[in-house]
Amino acid sequence: SSWWSHVEMGPPDPILGVTEAFKRDTNSKKMNLGVGAYRDDNGKPYVLNCVRKAEAMIASKKMDKEYLPIGGLADFTRASAELALGENSEVIKSGRFVTVQGISGTGSLRIGANFLQRFFKPSRDVYLPKPSWGNHTPIFRDAGMQLQAYRYYDPKTCSLDFSGAMDDISKIPEKSIILLHACAHNPTGVDPRQEQWKELAATVKKRNLLVYFDMAYQGFASGDINRDAWAVRHFIDQGINIILSQSFAKNMGLYGERAGAFTVICKDAEEAKRVESQLKILIRPMYSNPPVNGARIASMILNTPDLRKEWLVEVKGMADRIISMRNQLVSNLKKEGSSHNWQHITDQIGMFCFTGLKPEQVERLMKEFSIYMTKDGRISVAGVSSGNVAYLAHAIHQVTK
Amino acid sequence: AYRTDEGQPWVLPVVKKVEQLIANDNSLNHEYLPILGLPEFRANASRIALGDDSPAIKENRVGSVQSLGGTGALRIGAEFLRRWYNGNNNTATPVYVSAPSWENHNSVFMDAGFKDIRTYHYWDAAKRGLDLQGLLNDMENAPESSIFILHACAHNPTGTDPSPEQWKQIAAVMKRRSLFPFFDSAYQGFASGSLDKDAWAVRFFVSEGFELFCAQSFSKNFGLYNERVGNLTVVGKDADNVQRVLSQMEKIVRTTWSNPPSQGARIVATTLSSPQLFDEWYGNVKTMADRVLLMRSELRSRLEALGTPGTWNHITEQIGMFSFTGLNPKQVEYMVKEKHIYLMASGRINMCGLTTKNLDYVAKSIHEAVTKIQ
User: Fold this and answer.
1) Distance CA A191, CA A165 (A)
2) Which residues in chain B land under pLDDT 50?
3) Which A residues, 23 through 62, put their C-beta within 8 Å of a C-beta on chain B?
4) Which one in A74, B172, B177, B236 has a CA-CA gap of 20 to 30 Å to A217?
């Protein structure tokens, strides 16, 4: 007999599971629009030139492999904070923040979630937008928090339900936690406009909510790192001491190197020191200290002026290609003769697009056309290329006409 | 961390070579690994722990989860056990940690949600060795299904391991009392210079039919400390059980780090799957192990030559990076303050800190501490 007889088979991970099903498909026209990893116009993974250069520089320095501090590589965490907050941020100057290296976005979110569970006394409730990234819920749940939701996406218009969001948020109990996607909302691609962000900030401030920003696409959304960080910086300017999770998986293409950061903005530098000590106590029994490779690459890029310049060009290049694919998808759908309004495809921003397709239609796309996406109709636009956008438009038209 | 005879960190020559191979391989990119990690790494890592001819591997009842170092492997294992072992979400299952142990063991299991973490007798300070009887008594008296964290080799911090005969006795009690073995293997190869010898205990338990976990670290034996390379090896009754266990571990990984870092796993996988690179690695490992063994024997012989009061055979009988010298806190204070030799209040020294240049000084200092301070 086994200790594990009663252990149930876990369901396949919905997002990464899509890739696995795709891999098994033998159709030559297959398209993987599941996981959010950037592809170039040939459908290939793209290793940024600035990353290759950074790697070569790192290799030439012949560094040792001694453990990083628990909080990670200091040059990396400092540069991450500056990237998010802006170099002239008063927060940076006063030192009233702590940034620790995290295992990409997931690891950073989890550190934050654990920190909230242990130290945020007023509430267990984390309010997520409806919908949110599928992994947000289990991350917070496993950390011991409870999940609530606020209206966000309007399926009728495939855009932001701003009045619904404002209505719900204005009713959130004081001192609850609200999670906001800083830019390129995942999975919908629907972001508030700056005017709407201003109203959100005012409401959130009035309700005295703890704001948790998830920024996984800085630079990758609009092509402009400052524009993509606008909401984060605006909230801080309004005196809201946010907490923030960053990922360098997409904007630097460092996916498997797991480069990320978690930041807490504090009252003052002394509070930041105390918070830092507690974050380290949380990290140590999870994995002791973080992996060096991705952080070193990101740090080299952010801290070397030539590489940083090159990176900004490359990240804009990725963003521009995605925007171009959105445009081509819509024009191809029109060419197919679709009578539906596909404007949301170009209104939305970032890696993902909420097509509005229903589960049955998604199923047909998979079975009849070997086009793979998550059940909610989310496509990764990065998986679209000039070579397959017509096929995609054709297939979508077939299942929606 | 390991240090050379010049007191410097050491990036293994085979690691440098493999990193170059990886850098020159244009087919490689930075894409996400699967949630459970790089398949070639996982299979090779578990093979190293269990042996090429492991019946468990042949019978397809071994699973592996690439983890962030040994700590990450321990944590995933602990989170799984808390959810699925001995009932569902049974946080009351006692977890036994050796006295003393690596202090992070306690925190890992506590943060995984276990409420009842206890110690089992291990170090006998009076005789400077293993308190086997105390250990076995604790196992006899432990509630059935209790979890025991066992150090596979090179016990941290005492350097004192059970002998094969003693392991047999431990296994017999654990089997009879239905206790769960969770091995922590951070020094395979690094301890004795032999991978097989250092894995003897784990393999013995497997041959005795136990279901067990083994958290492996490649930090020391590959010198890959900051790349965070670890593996949780799961040995189950059959393939079906292992498959279900892994599917649940996947869910745990997904909310902890989503998928593991690729660089270190690639280095290890490339090395272990090439016979030539494997031999080079083995040579590098032996270099490290031999230097530590040499420092042990040199320190002991100097102390005996000086006629330092007490017995010093434990220095060479202990194994691995650490040694419990037997110095008391006052003597340690003397070492630190008067001789500027830094060691833990427990009397634990890191053997890697010894070099041919400082052996005489350290031996003389220990001699002074022991003769001057009681």
Assistant:
1) 12
2) none
3) 35, 37, 45, 47, 51, 55-56, 59, 62
4) A74
Q: How many CA atoms lie within 13 A of A7 on its CB side?
A: 24
In a domain, A277, yes or no: yes
Q: With an 8 Å Cβ cutoff, are B30 and A47 in contact? A: yes
How many CA atoms lie less than 13 Å away from B31 in the CB half-sphere?
A: 15
- Interatomic CA distance for residues A152 and A189, integer angstroms: 11
pLDDT in tens, B32-62: 999 999 999 999 999 999 999 999 999 999 9
* pLDDT tens-digit series, residues A236-248: 999 999 999 999 9
- Would you kindly state where each structural domain of chain B is located, as residue ranges? 13-277, 290-372
Helix axes A292-303, A74-85, angle to 10 degrees: 50
The partner residue sitting opposite A7, judged by closest CB among B11, B84, B255, is B84
Question: Closest by alpha carbon to B216, among B101, B110, B72?
Answer: B72
Instruction: Look up the CATH architecture of domain B290-372.
Output: Alpha-Beta Complex (3.90)
| Model ipTM value | 0.96
Buried b (16+ CB within 10 A) or exposed e, A188-217: bbbbbeeeebeebbebbeebebbbbbbbbb
Q: Per-residue pLDDT tens for A41-84?
A: 999 999 999 999 999 999 999 999 999 999 999 999 999 999 99
What pLDDT is recorded for position B278? 98
Residues of B (79-138) whose Cβ lies below 8 Å from A: 84-86, 88, 104, 107-108, 110-111
Tokens standing for residue B114: 């276990």
Residue type, B229: V
Contacting residues of B for A258, CB less than 8 Å apart: 257, 259-261
A-chain residue closest to B10, CA distance: A64
User: What separation in angstroms does the CA of A80 have from each of A120, A189, A246?
Assistant: 24, 23, 8
Which residue, B157, B171, B161, is CA-closest to B203? B171
Chain A residues with beta carbon closer than 8 angstroms to that of B228: 287-291
Domain of residue A366 covers 14-46+319-399
The DSSP code sequence of B231-266 is EEEEE-SSHHHHHHHHHHHHHHHHHHTSS--HHHHH
A285 touches chain B (CB under 8 A): yes
Q: What distance in Å separates residue B142's CA from the closest CA in chain A?
A: 18
Is the CB of B258 less than 8 angstroms away from the CB of A104?
A: yes
Q: What is the rounded CA–CA span in Å between residue A369 and residue A400?
A: 13
For B312-345, the pLDDT digits (tens) are: 999 999 999 999 999 999 999 999 999 999 999 9
Residue A291 forms contact with B (CB below 8 Å): yes
Q: Is A75 a catalytic residue?
A: no
Pairing of strands A125-130, A177-181: parallel
Number of domains observed in the structure of chain A: 2
Beta carbons of B23 and A59 less than 8 Å apart: yes
Q: How far apart are CA B239 and CA B234, in angstroms?
A: 11
Residues A20 and A83 both lie in one domain: no
- What is the tens place of the pLDDT at every residue in A135-174? 999 999 999 999 999 999 999 999 999 999 999 999 999 9
Nearest to B261 among A143, A289, A291 (CB): A291
Which chain A positions have a beta carbon within 8 Å of B107's beta carbon?
A: 281, 284-285
In terms of domains, do A155 and A207 share one?
Answer: yes
Q: In CATH, which of 3.20.20.70, 3.40.50.300, 3.40.640.10, 2.60.40.4070 is domain B13-277?
A: 3.40.640.10
Same domain, A115 and A233: yes
Co-location of A230 and A336 in the same domain: no
- Listed by number, the residues of chain A in 364-383 with a beta carbon closer than 8 Å to a beta carbon of chain B are none
